[in-house]
Amino acid sequence: MALLGEFWQVLTENLARKHGTGPVHSLSEITMLAERFPDQIQIVCGTHQDQVVAGVLLFITATCIHTQYIAANDIGYQFSALDAVFDFCITKAVSDGKRWLDFGICNEQAGKVLNEGLYKFKTEFGGGGTVHEFFEIPLTGEENVD
Fold first, then answer.
1. How many CB atoms are located within 10 Å of the residue 22 CB?
2. Could you tell me the residue range of the domain that residue 54 belongs to?
3. Which one, of 98, 36, 33, lies nearest residue 69 by Cα?
């Protein structure tokens, strides 16, 4: 996790510039989680001239590698660094016997709206969409739930 701080800078700048937002987690939260779960939280970065230009933060389970955060800066996009990062991640998933590489969600408003730009971005790396049905069961005894 030596490159986490550098990656986080790329991530936060990318999210602020493109979407006017920041990551859901703070750097200190991810650092704490990575320290507690070193085999389940890993980072893969692409570098140029010893600087992080792209990367993904991975959450790893027995069957899946999930890309929690994906980011690149302008230099990373110029050199297609995410292509190399995902090539490594896909190869790792196969060699580790994982069933899936999960690129994460591409929707907004609690799954009601597809973020077409994000979907296109992820499908360019070979990802595809899956539709899920969600069921809500009230546990408080209330019968009317939105």
1. 12
2. 4-102
3. 33
